[in-house]
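re: ur question from yesterday

yeah so i grabbed the chain u mentioned. its 96 aa long if i counted rite. heres the sequnce exactly as i have it in my notes:
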Amino acid sequence: MADVVYKSPVGVSIYDDKESHDCFSITGNAKKSETVVEFESAYDFEEFVQKHIDCKGIEFDSEFCQFFAYAKTKERALKFVKDIEKHFEKVKKMLD
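ran it thru and got these structure tokens back, copy pasting raw so excuse formatting
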């Protein structure tokens, strides 16, 4: 089983899959408490992320019930997830 590299409060985690899949996997489900938005499916979350976050170097393969994305490096995976967190932090501040 792949090691957890980072657990985001948004609801996704990064796993080191370099040994078995030559990538870092980003997977999980968005938490409404952190995203403010209730996504009906992982497809909806993926579409939202693709619209609002820089996805260069990220590949997607979500399923209805779980978000999946992949990055070649740990650094890219971390930046991607941190960018998602920053986006939702801004959204939450605007609503306060």
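noticed a couple things. The longest helix spans residues 74-95. also Helices lie at 18-21, 32-35, 42-52, 74-95.
anyway ttyl
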